[in-house]
Amino acid sequence: MAENPTITICLMAILFITRLASTLGKSKSWTGLLPPQIQTLDFARHLHVEPDAIKSVSSDYGNIVHENPAAVLYPSSIEDITSLIKFSYNNYTPFTVAARGHGHSVGGQAMASNGVVVDMTSLRNHKNGTGITVSKCPSLGFYADVGGEQLWIDVLHSTMEHGFAPVSWTDYLYLSVGGTLSNAGISGTTFRYGPQISNVYEMDVVTGKGELVTCSSHTNSELFYAVLGGLGQFGIITRARIALEPAPKRVKWVRMLYSDFSAFTRDQERLISINGRKQKNALDYLEGSLLMAQGPPNNWRSSFFPSSDIPKIMSLVTQHAIIYCLEVAKYYDDGTRHIVDKDLQQLLKGLSFVAGFMFEKDVSFVDFLNRVRSGEQKLHSQGLWDVPHPWLNLFLPKSRILEFNKGVFHDLVLKRNITTGVVLFYPMNRKKWDDKMSAVIPEEDIFYTVGFLHSSGFNDWQAYDHQNKDILKFCDKAGIEIKQYLPLYNSNKEWINHFGSKWRNFRERKAQFDPKMMLSPGQRIFNDI
Question: Which region is the signal sequence (predicted)?
Answer without folding.
Answer: 1-25
